[in-house]
Amino acid sequence: MLVKFFLGLRAAGVPVSPTEFLTLLKALDARVASGSVDDFYWLGRLCLVKDERHFDRYDQVYGRYFEGVEATFAALAEGTVPAQWLESKAALLLSPEEQAAIRSLGGFEELMRTLAERLSEQKGRHEGGSKWVGTRGKSPFGNDGYNPEGVRVGGESRNQRAVKVWERREFRNLDSDVELGTRNIKLALRRLRRFAREGVQDQLDLEGTIEATARNAGYLDLKLVAERRNAMKVLLLLDVGGSMDPYVRLCEELFSAARAEFRHLRQFYFHNCVYESLWVDNRRRHSERMPTYELLRTYAGDYRLIIVGDATMSPYEINQPGGSVEHWNEESGATWLRRLFAAFPHSAWLNPQREDRWQYTQTIGMTRELLEDRMYPLTLAGIDRAARELRGR
Amino acid sequence: MSNPRFTGTERYVATDDLTLSVNAAVTLGRPLLVKGEPGTGKTQLAEEVALALRLPLFEWHIKSTTKAQQGLYEYDAVSRLRDSQLGDDRVKDIGNYIVRGRVWEAFLSDVQPVLLIDEIDKADIEFPNDLLRELDRMEFFVYETRELVKARHRPVIIITSNNEKELPDAFLRRCFFHYIRFPDAATMERIVDVHFPNLKRDLLREALQSFYALREVPGLKKKPSTSELLDWIKLLLAEDIPAEALRETDAKKMIPPLYGALLKNEQDVHLFEQLLFMHRRNAR
């Protein structure tokens, strides 16, 4: 039963690891919680869920799996423990030797197989009416997956409580349903660090001190330097609207990670292709524009250029004057892109579309040609490759 | 169980789930990671656990420049260099220049200590990863003296986070996680009761009503929290403001007296004033 609960949590998208599951079993073994069903709810959450955004999913899975067993808990608290319960518990609690063995197995697949074996064993032994396995026990756990809409309207209450803790689902608002992947993006962006010493001199300069001390006839002469900080400057141009809409979330993540990583970050927006002006704020895109020439004058040189866009448009938008879908452009997009890439020798284009689809869009090919092939997919690996490109040379 | 169970203290109201979390962490010797809105008593929890279980408390406050190594020890090479210049005898033993960090001190404690690692999310993104082994095995190696430092008693570790950075999975897996929810009205009454035992019933009711109404205002940058409520009540008492004054504000929808204790942000005050203005205009 608990194994199924564990698998149910995983199927619902709560990232639970076997180690955490074993910790829960250990906690049960140590009698941390009393027999009450509430205590078990808190204990399970404490051990298995490490992010408040997942609390709601935990509540749902908990509700589904422990429906109808409160009576058992009540009996347990009173000391009248049903025999089957103990039996199933014995089958589930792994001995210390087994725990060690599982740890040394390492791989999750291995463990899953062990668990599956245990599960089938258990099913066999409890056939015919144990509350713990129930009819649900025969359905493959994959089918029981997480359904964001699957609000279970609180079943009848078996003890006196009006609403069970997990049925209140108080953490519903915290479940954003999308994982914030910013940590991984930040780690990928770290490749772009370029350290420089600026500001207050508060660190010992070891080499300088040794040299100065030697010059000083062996008498100590301390030298201090400023702390190293990331001095990389990044200019981010983001394509917005139209075909980019499905990737808004991804771009936001990239943007928030970049903002945390780089102290010198400037961002501008464009639509489909860069022309004679860009804008800073999407809400005031028509009133506050930045001429591209000014951008080139201001940031060229020490800034690295990252363009984020799907480069999916009509070929005219790149190669024809007046090809823009929004206004009359005197010069073609290609001219502007060439200027941009000439002014920023360190530049890369991140494309949120899958790399294996790129060949089917003509304008992606055209843009890549202009870029001398410095287009990378907006994935962790792609960001990594782009960072290497931006860093090198 | 040799340890007494934590059930809150005279000045700290712990809900059942929090009590369970603390006791589970103490029993199984796992670090307890505490998150929650600012001002819900995350840092205070460690102090109260130490107080309740009569254990010594070691606090390690994390800043953006804190390195994991600083919690273990630092080698003061500069002092040693200076001493060698002066011909001090101490210089022969490198151990004289190893400065112990908070984690080491906690490991040396004669009785089981409580170790607070406060605001771990302030540090660099790699910081938690650098402490994995130390938290897991409760030991670390001092390279300079070739010495293995082991905890005499596995400390009760309480870690707080304000969610400014995501913490790595490997780290989370080793911790218990507790999210302190914002207290509901009943719990809040108990909390206020603990801090102001002689508060008049009607004043408390009115104050709580204004407080929860204020938290409901949409778009506030920083919702007032428990600590702000306590400060506000302290002010109300100091100024001797009667309960009627609060009720009056409720009816006419005016700004509650001494609101500066509740709203800490200029934009929030403006927003609140605007809302009230609109409300009054509509009411007319």
**Proportion of residues in β-strands of chain B:** 5-15%
Helix content percent band of chain A = 40-55%
Low-confidence blocks of residues of chain A: 79-94, 122-163, 174-180
Question: What is the molecular shape of chain B?
Answer: elongated
Low-confidence stretches of chain B: none
Oligomer: heterodimer
**Contiguous helical run count of chain A:** 17
What pair of chains forms the biggest interface?
A: A-B, 34 and 30 residues
Average pLDDT reading of chain A: 70
Tally of DSSP β-strands of chain A: 9
Radius of gyration of chain A: 30 Å
Mean pLDDT of chain B: 83
First-last Cα distance of chain B: 65 Å
Strand content of chain A: 5-15%
The spatial strand order of the largest sheet of chain B comes to 2-5-8-1-9
Structure explained in plain terms:
- The complex is a heterodimer of chains A (393) and B (284).
- Chain A has 393 residues and is of the alpha/beta class.
- Helix content of chain A is 44%, strand content 13%.
- Chain A has 17 helices and nine strands.
- Chain A has a five-stranded parallel beta sheet with strand order 4-3-7-8-9. A two-stranded antiparallel ribbon of chain A has the order 1-2. In chain A, strands 5-6 form a two-stranded antiparallel ribbon.
- In chain A, helix 10 (182-189) crosses helix 12.
- Chain A is flat, with a radius of gyration of 30 Å.
- The two termini of chain A are 58 Å apart.
- The model of chain A is unreliable at 79-94, 122-163 and 174-180 (pLDDT under 50).
- The model of chain B has no long low-confidence stretch (mean pLDDT 83).
- The longest helix of chain B is centred in the last third of the chain and has 18 residues, at 266-283.
- In chain B, 45% of the residues lie in helices and 14% in strands.
- Chain B has helices at 16-28, 42-53, 68-72, 77-86, 102-108, 132-137, 169-174, 185-195, 201-216, 226-238, 243-252, 266-283; strands at 32-36, 57-61, 73-75, 98-100, 114-118, 139-142, 147-150, 156-160, 176-180.
- Chain B is built from twelve helices and nine strands.
- Chain B is α/β, with parallel strands linked by helices.
- In chain B, the strands form three sheets. Chain B has a five-stranded parallel beta sheet with strand order 2-5-8-1-9, sandwiched between helices. A two-stranded antiparallel sheet of chain B has the order 3-4.
- The interface between A and B is medium-sized, with 34 and 30 residues.
